[in-house]
Amino acid sequence: MSTYQMVSRHVEAALAEASKEGIADDVVARCLLSEAIRIFRSGRPIDDIAAELTAAIDNLDEDAPLSFIRP
Q1: How far is CA 50 from each of CA 6, 19, 61, rounded to the nearest angstrom?
Q2: Integer Cα distance of 34 and 12 in angstroms
Q3: What is the spatial distance between Cα 19 and Cα 13, in angstroms, rounded to a whole number?
Q4: d(Cα 63, Cα 51) in Å, to the nearest integer?
Q5: What is the value of pTM for the model shown?
Q6: Between 71 and 32, where is the model more confident?
Q7: At what angle do helices 46-58 and 25-41 cross, to 10 degrees?
Q8: Rounded-to-integer distance, Cα 7 and Cα 20, Å
């Protein structure tokens, strides 16, 4: 099993559990983002974390070409 598949399985379980409790997916997503940042901070410099998040933001539009190959 890939790391992505493992994490995805846990995220789906968290979403299902939250749904049963009446918690919106958006709230779960914000909590997951906070946890990801907490994990990043345990071993990466803040500038590196900011670059990682900026790259994710720059590529939010799945229909646009990836930012690093845009003219």
Answers
A1: 25, 31, 19
A2: 17
A3: 10
A4: 22
A5: 0.79
A6: 32
A7: 140
A8: 20
